[in-house]
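Action item from last meeting closed. Structure (449 res):
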């Protein structure tokens, strides 16, 4: 019997999508755990914009890509799901064409097991479609579904996805079940989800020619923002040793020639003496000649002149901060982890370190329950006044978060019944003052930087 496990990163089905250094890090870790247990692995990335030469794209236009690992996905217009039929926006499949996935699967050896990950809750149609395709080609092969959607919308996934197993939470928790119960093998290696330094490196060698790879420095978050799912996805807060993170950078630079690395950690700068400062100093000491990207938002309150200078000298190119709003009351409601004075100091320190204003993006939440358009407008203008770039982050209601019940009450959509309505592009919880026209005006205001 084949010992090969097939891992698939599914399509995105949405009104819009852009590759901000996106990689299924959890799936690559799972691949490394399976290897440690003596199994072979194969990886198919439905979002791959490089598509191997053996797969003909036909009339599909290749997307524009930027240096450093970001850019547009291949996309194809498709019919909107019934729940979104009334939304007057084009809907797309982002990733390789449907027939290309079928061609790859039909040309592959039958796997022993198929693992599929999932991301945003409202991207589940792409997940379901991939499951349908693999079930059609390999009907007697069991499919395991994990990832963010499978965790946050477990009941919905178990009932509708068509997977044989839906496993919520970190993949480490399920390795024994996968090896012992599903495959009927004896477990050799069980990863400890709380000892990140002992985990094998993710299997990035499965990528054909990566421009960038993500790095894990921690899991979980010490903060408890009421709109965030971090606690639901990984309870607690565990960290790696900073020098081991730099060792991993050096490994991928040597083995794969990677010079761009992304951080999606929820608290990269938290307690900077533990992680950020020693890591940055070691990157500089080794003269790594790498570029680093932080699309997830760094904590403003931790920025000091020393850290700003270290970030600049180490090669951190994409800087994003989470301000959320400039209104004091809402800042307190959102956990009080940042205020305007901390933002002003951080913006000044970063510019003094050498960053231009356009290099510094500041996320502002948009469309939260009871949030007025005027609050958003004032926040945009305030960020502008400090010489840095405001970026609207449209609020997506997430099941299980502190704001979930408030979001359900504020929304005209049945959020609990249909995850498609979690889509932030719908502004599902926007107040009456945030009309479509007002939202477009606010978007335009951010671009006047």
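Sequence:
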């Amino acid at each position: 019997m084949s010992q090969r496990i097939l891992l698939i990163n599914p399509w995105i089905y949405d009104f819009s999508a852009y590759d901000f250094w996106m990689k299924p890090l959890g799936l690559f870790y799972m691949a490394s755990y399976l290897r440690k247990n003596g199994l072979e692995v194969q990886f198919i990335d439905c979002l791959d914009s490089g598509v191997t030469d053996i797969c003909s794209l036909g009339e599909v236009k290749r997307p524009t890509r930027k240096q450093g690992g970001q850019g547009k996905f291949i996309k194809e217009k498709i019919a909107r799901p019934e729940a979104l039929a009334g939304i007057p926006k084009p809907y797309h499949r982002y990733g390789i064409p449907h027939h290309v996935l079928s061609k790859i699967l039909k040309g592959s050896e039958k796997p022993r097991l198929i693992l599929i990950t999932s991301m945003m809750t409202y991207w589940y149609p792409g997940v379901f479609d991939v499951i349908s395709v693999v079930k059609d080609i390999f009907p007697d092969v069991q499919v395991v579904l994990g990832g963010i959607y499978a965790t946050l919308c477990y009941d919905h996934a178990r009932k509708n996805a068509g997977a044989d197993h839906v496993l919520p939470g970190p993949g480490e928790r399920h390795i024994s079940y996968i090896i012992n119960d599903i495959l009927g093998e004896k477990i050799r290696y069980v990863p400890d989800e709380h000892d990140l330094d002992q985990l094998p490196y993710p299997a990035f060698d499965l990528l054909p020619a990566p421009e960038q790879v993500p790095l894990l420095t921690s899991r979980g978050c010490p903060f408890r923002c009421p709109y965030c799912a971090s606690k639901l996805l990984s309870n607690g807060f565990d960290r790696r040793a900073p020098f081991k993170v730099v060792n991993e950078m050096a490994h991928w630079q040597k083995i794969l020639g990677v010079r761009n690395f992304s951080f999606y950690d929820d608290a990269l700068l938290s307690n900077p003496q533990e992680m950020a400062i020693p890591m940055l100093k070691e990157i500089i000491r080794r003269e790594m000649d790498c570029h680093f990207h932080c699309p997830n938002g760094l904590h403003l309150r931790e920025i000091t002149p020393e850290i700003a200078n270290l970030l600049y000298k180490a090669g951190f190119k994409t800087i994003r901060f989470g301000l959320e709003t400039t209104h004091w009351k809402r800042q307190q409601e959102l956990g009080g982890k940042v205020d305007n004075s901390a933002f002003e100091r951080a913006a000044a320190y970063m510019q003094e370190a050498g960053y231009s204003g356009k290099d510094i993006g500041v996320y502002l939440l948009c469309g939260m329950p009871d949030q007025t358009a005027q609050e958003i407008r004032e926040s945009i203008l305030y960020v502008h006044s400090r010489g840095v770039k405001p970026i609207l982050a449209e609020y997506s209601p997430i099941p299980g978060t502190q704001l979930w019940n408030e979001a359900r009450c504020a929304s005209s959509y049945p959020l609990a019944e249909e995850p498609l309505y979690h889509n932030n592009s719908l502004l599902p919880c926007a107040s009456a003052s945030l009309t479509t026209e007002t939202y477009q005006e606010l978007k335009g205001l951010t671009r006047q930087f």
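Note appended to the action item: The chain has two domains: 4-182, 211-446.
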